[in-house]
Write a sequence for this structure.
């Protein structure tokens, strides 16, 4: 009976992440010969349903990604970021990685 109730439940509504976010990055590994990850960056995210676009940093690096429920996954250059958005939609915590580096990050909606 419980399985039947879950099967009939509507899909989770995506978190709302459109807006300006301040990202703070930590590094668990670092290779100075690879893409240099900043300590922090401001990103403008634009959400259309599940689709996510936008730009990050003063170079306005392109963002492409998807929002599924409270989970956000997107790419900036060679880096892939995955995060969980908090319940009130004002913050997220996650991990990032590129070809040779990885770490954790937090972001706060501005």
């Amino acid at each position: 009976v419980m399985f039947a109730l879950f099967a009939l439940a509507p899909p989770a509504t995506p978190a709302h992440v459109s807006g300006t976010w301040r990202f703070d990055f930590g590094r668990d590994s670092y290779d100075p010969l690879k893409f240099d990850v900043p300590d922090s960056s401001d990103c403008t995210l634009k959400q259309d349903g599940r689709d996510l676009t936008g730009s990050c940093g003063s170079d306005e690096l392109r963002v492409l990604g998807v929002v599924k429920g409270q989970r956000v996954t997107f790419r900036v250059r060679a880096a892939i970021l995955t995060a969980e958005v908090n319940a009130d939609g004002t913050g997220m915590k996650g991990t990032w990685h590129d070809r040779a580096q990885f770490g954790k990050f937090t972001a706060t909606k501005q």
